[in-house]
Amino acid sequence: MSVDGEAVRLADEAQADEPGWEVDPDDEWGVAVVATVGRQLKLRREAAGMRACDFAAAVKYGEDLVYKVESGKRIPRPEYLEKADEVLRAGGLIAAMKEDVAKVRYPKKVRDLAKLEGQAVELLSYGSHNLHGLLQTEEYARALLSTRRPALSEDELERAVAARVARKSVFARRPAPELSFVQEEVTLRRPVGGREVLRTQLEHLVELARLRHVEIQVMPTSCGDHPGTGGRIQVLKFQDGTAVGRADDEFGSRPVTDPRHLRILELRYGIIRAEALSARESLAFIEQVLGHT
After folding, report:
1. % the chain with pLDDT above 70
2. CB of 257 within 8 A of CB of 242?
3. Basic and acidic residues compositional bias: what residue ranges (predicted)?
4. What pLDDT score was predicted for residue 106?
5. Nearest to residue 258, comparing CAs of 234, 242, 282?
6. How far apart are CA 89 and CA 49, in angstroms?
7. pLDDT-based confidence at 13, cuts 50/70/90?
8. Residue 214's beta-bridge partner residues?
C-alpha cells in the first residue's frame, strides 16, 4: 500500500464515529475539493430524480448532512461516498473521490508536514517537552492535544488526532527512511493522559526502538548542559540532497533550507546525539521506566 493510501486508511479508522468534518475556510485547496465533490453529488442526485430527503433516507444519513455536503460545508466520510455511489449507481466514480476527500480532513499545515515526512530519506528530531508526533500512540496524542488552550472543539480534536495518526504511515514506507529521535527523559515520565496511557505509550516506544531503521535515544535529566536547552530541533533530508530544518530558538522558529542554517542545526543535533544515552542504553532505560509505571 502506498504512503498516501496507508494514511487514508489510518485516518478513516480514527474518524469511524464522525459523520464528517467542517471545512477549514482558510484552506483554499480543501474548500475547492469539497465544493467540487458536493456539486457532483447534487448534480447526480438531481439527475436521478431524487429529492434530498429521499436520498438521505437511502444513504441512512440525516437530510441536514446531505445539504451540508452538497453545499461544500461538510467533508463526507468514505462510507457516505460509497453509499452515495451505490444509491446513485455511479459505477465507482463517486467512491473514487475518497482519497482526495480524505486528505482534506487534515489541516493544511499538517498535510504539508506529512508530505515532507513522506518524502524524507532521513529525519533527525530532538524533543524537549513532548514526544515527537510520529512516536505518539493515538490515546497519548488525544490526551496531549486535549491540553491545548483555547481548547479544541470535539470536531477539531478528532481532526487533529486523525491527522497525527495518519502521519505514522512513514514507518511502513519502503524503502524505509532513517529515523533518529532524541527525547528528554521528562517526556518519558510525564503521565500525559494518566498512567495507563503512559504505559501503553512506553510499550509502543519499545516496539519502535527495535525497528532497524529507527533509533531512539534518551537525554538524561542529569545532563544539564547541552545545546538542546532552547527547545525542539528537527531536520528532514531528501533524496536529491536538499533538506529543511527548524528549531524553537533559531531563525524565528521558521523552516529553513539555507545550507548555512542547516549546518548549525545539524551541528547542534550531532552534539545532542553524542551526549545522550546510546540507542541500546536508551532502550534499556525506557524498559526500566516502563517497569516502574
Report:
1. 88
2. yes
3. 1-12
4. 63
5. 242
6. 13
7. very low
8. 179
Helix axes 52-59, 63-70, angle to 10 degrees: 110
Domain chopping of the chain, boundaries: 19-104, 116-138+172-291
Sequence length of the chain is 293
CA distance 175 to 239: 12
pLDDT tens digits, 206-222? 999 999 999 999 999 99
Report the candidate in 73, 71, 97, 72 with the shortest Cα–Cα distance to residue 83: 97
Q: Residue for cell digits 486508511?
A: 9
Closest CA to 271 of 259, 263, 280, 283: 263
Number of C-beta neighbours around residue 147 at 10 A: 11
> HSE on the CB side for 114, CA within 13 Å?
25
The CATH label, of 1.10.260.40, 1.10.340.30, 1.10.10.10, 1.20.1250.20, for the domain at 19-104 is 1.10.260.40
Cell of 171: 514507518
Q: What does the block give as the cell for 208?
A: 519502535
Report d(CA 74, CA 33) in Å as an integer: 11
**E-assigned strands of 95-177?**
120-127
Distance of CA 126 to the CA centre of its chain: 18
Q: What amino acid occupies position 76?
A: P
Domain 116-138+172-291, CATH homologous superfamily name and number? Endonuclease Chain A (3.30.870.10)
φ/ψ of residue 51, rounded to 5: -75, 160
Residue 14 has a pLDDT of 37
For helices 108-119 and 154-166, give the axis angle rounded to 10 degrees. 10
* CA 131/CA 140 separation, integer angstroms: 9
pLDDT of 15? 37
Position with higher pLDDT, 67 vs 22: 67
